[in-house]
Amino acid sequence: MTCLAIDFETANERRDSACAVGLAWIEDGRVVRRASRLIRPPEMRFSPGNIRVHGILPADVRDAPPFPVAMAEFLPDLEHGLILAHNAPFDMGVLRASLAAHGLPVPSFSYLCTLQVARQVFPDPAGCGLGKVASRLGIRFEHHDAGEDAFACAEIALAAVRVTGAESVAGLTRVLPLRVTTLPPGPEMPRYRAPGREGIAGRAALSARRQFADAEVRFMIRGSTGNRYEVALEERPSGLYLRCTCMAGRNRRRCRHVDAMVDGDVTDLISENLADVERLRRLIEDAPAGHRVEPERLRRVQAA
Ligand SMILES: [Zn+2]
């Protein structure tokens, strides 16, 4: 089974806006190959916040191949492989959204999130973001270059293998309470249909039920002072809301815990429902144009 770490950078907030990919292959307990490619996103719209993170400009990718071409040589390695990513819901979301945007099937593979691995093997009050874990482990890399990030992700997994005595990266799941997520082959997510005349609220409620199958969605977040807060998704007649139990949330103000869930940042997520974070992202991103469930709307906190 091929084992490789993957990292995507995106041009803007859309998950199908990949502008760079980095990969690092693991064999026999070490990184044996690295690659990175620039990708021309479907829409040449770069958000300043994203540029600040990765430094890639529209001019850098104007002549780069589109996603299917850039990824063609790597997709066979993904098939039936074990994929590693740091904060995997983000990268898996990019992969799936980008394949779907080009009408391509999602290959069947398993993935493991090295953020979850690091939380269990290398916990630290400073958090387990890629840069922080890498620096604690003495892994030298240029953060936010896709190829470098994939390399650091692979090295974190290898360090965890050494520390835990697991026989391989795949073997981590036998020594740690970790789940490997296996994607079924084929187009994976049901897409929204264009909205009718029911209005945003009705659509949002419908889509929330589709996304979450009527289950209560709650995220447990570790606050900066170590307190635990709960962010709950609520359906109201007027739309969807994320409500937090922290002081700001109770005072109906936006808080960083809600922002983190909206952004898909799972650094301080304690609850295990990573899949719900990804589904929330899709809920925000996939709502039909003109009827989008705007993040601002989700961020708004109202009294129950
Ligand atoms: Zn909060």
Automatic annotation (TrEMBL):
InterPro entries: Ribonucl_H, RNaseH-like_sf, RNaseH_sf, Znf_SWIM. Residues 229-266 form the SWIM-type domain. It holds the Pfam family RNase_T. One of its GO terms (molecular function) is nucleic acid binding. Keywords: Metal-binding, Zinc, Zinc-finger. GO terms for cellular component: cytosol. This is SWIM-type domain-containing protein. GO terms for biological process: DNA metabolic process. It comes from Methylobacterium oxalidis. The lineage of its organism: Bacteria, Pseudomonadati, Pseudomonadota, Alphaproteobacteria, Hyphomicrobiales.
